[in-house]
């Protein structure tokens, strides 16, 4: 299976390709501040990437992650109300790594060390518009389905 992911910032859509043929499309939410590579920018990095690591296999839907570790919590509206400032990373994490030295890899533009992920978020935050702090957010059921359908090392192309 030769799968790859194409993420279009303009359409807020992630496309799964198999041997360059579209097999699935998902809505996503990229960065509120738009595209960009720089550390601390809160922008979604563009260019060629790969899935560096898959985190959360087997975790329950809406499992909460901090620092790529399951906290033991399950997201609920009550938990959200108690911690309104939290940037929720839920269900699964696909950690990205840039492949283009000087553009999205190494130094102040390194996607992996910016901790840029494809991850689940509270489903009500998926409004079809950019809203994240740099990551690519997905509905929880969608990110679990995607996680189960690709391997670590899967190519990812992010563009405007």
TrEMBL record:
Pathway, per record: Cell wall biogenesis; peptidoglycan biosynthesis
This protein's record includes keyword Transferase: yes
InterPro entries for the chain: LD-transpeptidase, LD_TPept_cat_dom, Transpep_catalytic_dom
Catalytic residues (UniProt): 119, 135
Domain L,D-TPase catalytic: residue ranges: 3-159
Gene3D superfamilies the UniProt entry points to: L,D-transpeptidase catalytic domain-like (2.40.440.10)
Keywords attached to this entry: Cell shape, Cell wall biogenesis/degradation, Glycosyltransferase, Hydrolase, Peptidoglycan synthesis, Transferase
Domain of life of the source: Bacteria
Family of this protein: Belongs to the YkuD family.
Stated name of the protein: L,D-transpeptidase
């Amino acid at each position: 299976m030769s799968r790859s992911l194409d993420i279009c910032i303009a359409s807020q859509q992630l496309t799964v390709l198999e041997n360059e043929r579209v097999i699935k499309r998902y809505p996503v939410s990229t960065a509120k501040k738009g595209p960009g590579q720089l550390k601390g920018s809160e922008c979604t990095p563009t260019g060629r990437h790969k899935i560096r690591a898959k985190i959360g296999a087997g975790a329950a839907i809406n499992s909460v992650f901090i620092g790529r570790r399951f906290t033991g919590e399950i997201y609920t509206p009550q938990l959200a109300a108690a911690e309104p400032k939290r940037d929720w990373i839920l269900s699964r994490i696909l950690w990205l790594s840039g492949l283009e030295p000087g553009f999205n890899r190494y130094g102040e533009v390194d996607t992996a060390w910016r901790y840029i992920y494809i991850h689940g978020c509270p489903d009500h935050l998926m409004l079809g518009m950019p809203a994240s702090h740099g990551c690519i957010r997905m509905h929880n059921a969608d990110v679990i389905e995607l996680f189960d359908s690709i391997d670590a090392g899967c190519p990812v192309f992010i563009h405007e």
